[in-house]
TrEMBL record:
It comes from the Eukaryota. Residues 1-22 are annotated as: Disordered. Residues 10-22 have a biased composition (Low complexity). Residues 50-111 form the Saccharopine dehydrogenase NADP binding domain. This is Saccharopine dehydrogenase NADP binding domain-containing protein.
Amino acid sequence: MRSLAAGAQRPCAPSSRLPAPRAPRRACAAFASASASSSAATGGVPDAKVVVIGGTGRVGSATASALLQQFPNLEVTLASRSDASYAAAVARRPNLRKAAFKAVDITDAASVKVGRGEEGR
């Protein structure tokens, strides 16, 4: 094995200059860009339906709440396993009363189809 001269850099030494991390992609990028337009302020997503799987949890309820605030005419359904979690989500975020609730178990394909409104398909 060769030795390196004093002060010489190893050819494969890890660099202290790591690339900057990328900004995370946002799940609601389309909605975020639409909120800048004037139509978004008046609920610019007509007749749209959104099912938020896990919609009664912290992240899901925050997402559903933000969607309802930005787009008042959006039809939002919160999908979760229990009615109790829906009641807790509404207690945390009262505007979720506008959202429908469907009991859905994501480990059961038939349950997910019912939650998405695909009962007979």
